[in-house]
Structures are given as structure tokens and as C-alpha cells.
Amino acid sequence: MVPNNADNDLHHIHNLCIDPKGREIFLHSSFDSEEESGVEFRSAIMFEKNIRYLNQLSNESILVHMHLPGGDWQDCMGIMDTINSSSSKIFMLAYGKVESASSILFQAAHLRVLMPNTHMLIHYGSLSIEDEHRAAKSSFEWSEKESLKMINIFTDRCNDSPIAKERNWKKHIIRKHIMSQLDKKSDWILNAEEAVYYGFADGVLGDRKFSTIDKLKNRKR
Predict the structure, then answer these.
(1) Over the chain, what is the mean pLDDT?
(2) CB of 66 within 8 A of CB of 106?
(3) Angstrom distance (rounded) from CA 91 to CA 61
(4) CB 30, CB 70: distance < 8 Å
(5) In the prediction, which pLDDT does 118 show?
(6) Hey, CA dihedral for 217, 85, 33, 72, is it positive or negative?
(7) Model confidence over 152-188: pLDDT tens digits?
């Protein structure tokens, strides 16, 4: 039996995580996993394929619906590279939680909007080492470099934020403040409005600029 158009659309959305007509992609944990694993190789590969496909169709903006509790750092970096190399602008709308690795990849989007009840959690990644001394040392040094990469990403985003303008912060002050928050709190949790205040998001859905999802999709930036 040949599926009708509505069935075909639902197949793309629910099984392939893409709405080609609407130029929308759904980024979430893989349903093949028994738990909500966040970013991992399956969700990352699906995302990379879908971005590539939509870029081949046109250069119109793409709306990504993201619902992720963090995940694997390297797969997160793969998604960031995909967004940064996209010929189409990527608008991202985040739901529920933007935590750990997903808080970082969220920063790559050209436009970053949070649902009203979404929170952001920022922290250093975890590292488990079960190896001989030299390999363990190498893993630790790599983790330190990646942690600095994370700090740089958030520092750059905060540089033009309301809080930085209000307090006349220079970049080195921003970096110091972010690191102090992570040192004090371990898990630095911000609500949607606080994330916007720090420049880690561009707005909250329902704001005047982003009143509806359709207006967000059609926004030119």
C-alpha cells in the first residue's frame, strides 16, 4: 500500500527526524537507546545527514527543534561543525532542558530561542580514565583543552550580552566570571530569561520578537 502524503510526512518527522517541506529538523536522543542518552553517534549522524540534504535543496534557513540532556562531547562537536559549515542559516528552538554538551552546541546556531520553561545547565564534562599512566595523562590533557574550548565559546557569546554591556565587562572579566560560576556551583543553572541576559540565548518564545514558531521560522537574520 502506497502511503498518502500525510503518512509520508509523518514518516519523515517521526522516523527520519526531518520535515523537508517545512525545512525543520528534530534533534533529540535516539529512540534506539533504552535511556535518554542525549547527543551520541546515532542522533549526530542523523542530524548531519538531514542538514546536508536540506542544504542540497536550497539555502533557505532551517529550524532545528532541540530536546537534549547533553551527551557525548565529540558527537556534540561534530554537530557544531555541521552547523558552522551549513550554507543555510540554522535557527534553533530548545525545549525542556539545554544541558551540558547541548548547551554548547546550542551556541553554534545563528538564532537561539528557548521555550519559556526551558533551563540551561552549564558545567565541565566528566572524565573516566582506566588506562596506563601515559594514556591517562594524555586523556586528561585533552580534556583540559576541551574545557578551555567550552569557556571560550561561552565567553564569546557573553561578550555582546545585556549583562556585559550593563556592567561594562571586558572579555577577560567575562571569562573570569564564567569560570568562577563553574567553580562555585559545579552545575550552573539558568532559567530562560537568565540565559538571554548572559547572551547564551537570543530570546524566549512568546517574546515580541519571537511570538510564535511560525514567525521564528520566517524571521530573516
Answers:
(1) 90
(2) yes
(3) 7
(4) no
(5) 98
(6) negative
(7) 999 999 999 999 999 999 999 999 999 999 999 989 9
Q: What is the pLDDT of residue 201?
A: 98
Spatial CA neighbour of 63 closest among 45, 86, 97, 43:
86
- Report the DSSP beta bridge partners of residue 92: 64, 112
| 123 Cβ contact partners less than 8 Å away, ≥ 6 residues apart | 100, 182, 186, 187, 188
Q: What are the residues facing 113 on neighbouring strands?
A: 93, 203
H or E segment to which residue 206 belongs = none
Q: What is the pTM of this model?
A: 0.89
- Number of Cβ within 10 Å of residue 37's Cβ equals 18
Q: Which of 130, 134, 178 is nearest to 153 (CA)?
A: 178
Which of 64, 49, 39, 56 lies closest to 16, judged by CA? Answer: 49
d(CA 134, CA 137): 5
Query: What does DSSP assign to residue 38?
Result: -
**What type of residue sits at position 142?**
W
